[in-house]
Amino acid sequence: MVKKAISLVLATEFVILATSLYSFELFINLQVAFLSSLFVILGSSFAYAKMVDSQVASETFEGKRDLLDELEDPHELYDDEAINEASADELDLRAIVKEERAKIKTFSVKGMKYGARGSASAFRLTGYLFLVLGFIALKNNELLNLAFYLPSLLVGIVIGSLSAKAFAPKT
User: Where in the chain are the domains?
Assistant: First the structure.
């Protein structure tokens, strides 16, 4: 699978290199945009995979409901849990409110640590740095042509997504 991903990236690079025979402006826009989006997608995928692995290893992962269940019942109104059948006079509303507030997830430093680790990953930041610096370099050298640059970002996203699947850990 990894060989297929590498060969896919190399084949795309070969096609981009072939565009240099047609026009240098087309080639440089394709190359910078392709590599920028490829690095961003791969960096984000690797950062996300590392974050998930670290959460699973630290056992802080909480099981979630199915996506379909969350869409159909976002507030868990139809859960199978027994509902208190007591009359309204017998219910201690303050205790119920405290219990429900305890269920609400609050902001915690531990939770923020895992989110910040994934978003501030060196893999991801390197991709975005390449994207910004590449765009600025093209603009400053008057080589930027958005008609070539923007569609090339899509090519990098597609190839990066396919390549990231090859490097994803198998669970």
Answer: 2-167
